[in-house]
Amino acid sequence: MTYRSESAQLARHLAQLSTNSGSRYLDADGLAVALLGRHESVRLMQETMAVATGRDIQKQAAGADTVANLTLGEVVNHPVEALRQAMAGYPVAQTPLPFLDVRVDSLRSDTAQTWHRVARAAIIARHDLSTEHGAYGPEHRWSMVADVAAMTPVVQNLDRQLLLAARRVRPADERTIRALERAGQSPATILAIEADAVARTGALPDLSGLRVPPSSTRPSAVTSLKALLEAQRRIPAQLERAEEIRPDVIARTALGQARILLASARLLEPDNHRRSVELARSMATRIGEQLHPEPRDVTALVPGDTTPLVQTTLMWQHLRRHRPDGAKLRGAEAIALRRLINHAPLVVDHLARAAKRQLSSGRWLISYSDAANFTWSRYNYMDDAPRLVTALNDLRAAFPATEPSRPTWAELSSARTTLGHRTTKPSRHERPATPDLAVGPRPSNPSPRKTLHNP
């Protein structure tokens, strides 16, 4: 999974907890899990702001930045830096409970189980963020600021609920109670409103919108129908970045696409998604008719990269296990499958490009010998292209990825879109190119001025 998808899932869980107010009634075990989920969520928000503003994640974690010394003028003029400092110094209620030690089946309330899902989503999102933080561009970093700004008031509201639970089941735990009390007094929500106004001045693209190359080419786990779209969009990037890839991997990936398209059409057909169903079946039929890989046609010198095939296999395995019971797909699932189908022409396009690149670079060898012992040689532009390459080029021409009626983009949910966080404060007239440029210089010899904690 990815930072974008897991942070969106995290926001969904936080919103559910905030609205049902069940956190104030947690028992001792449930409170321990809730404090774990809160701790991981705050860490994710801290590291997200560090990445957005160009800070080193480890240094930020070890630092002691607070908003205590920020003047009101600096908050108004540099709200992104103020929010970063507010989150860096946000009170943390330490919990000795490791995530892997939590037994979900022993949790006696739905609220406690939701807090466990909060912890899981935050941990996975942090892992992806720390691995891929260098891949996010300026506008995507502004999306991160908006994500944190959206989650901040929700987390602070939950802190007030957890404080009531802590006073009831842990009256002697002064450290936890004091941390939650200080969290309730934090100006983080006010600063989030200011930072959100700056972020919304310009475009806020989703971190993994399909027109943007994914930040990672690692095979994505497929645990739901909606996760299929995330996996599908990684395949073109995996093909593009593969230096060596065998022809049988290319062929099996294409045939795997045909199976995935047919399965998607089967799931969509009861809901009358006629156009997507027709496209899926048409592409799958043409792939099955034209791709007949033969070992004597073309081969490679080295084993090569199998990542696209691994990703395709994970997708197919999930679809094969999915057996609808006659119930209609949920709206988000149907949209994800339709966009997966619309994205298939781009996958075929990259399959054809990868095959042509491997052939023309001399990484693939061809043979037109009918004898039992093949005679392999490098491809020459005067030679006929292998049947695999010709078939992929024909498919690419039949289903062009750039055709307007088959868009290859999708707006995927994120933390800010999930929470729908919009303030009544109007957006700023302009914003710097990146969030780190929104940080203003600190004066060398500041004179006594009013600060947030010195009214």
UniProtKB/TrEMBL annotation:
Lineage top rank: taxon: Bacteria
Chain intervals for the UniProt region annotation (Disordered): 415-455
Protein name in the entry: DUF222 domain-containing protein
Highest classification ranks of the organism: Bacteria, Bacillati, Actinomycetota, Actinomycetes, Micrococcales
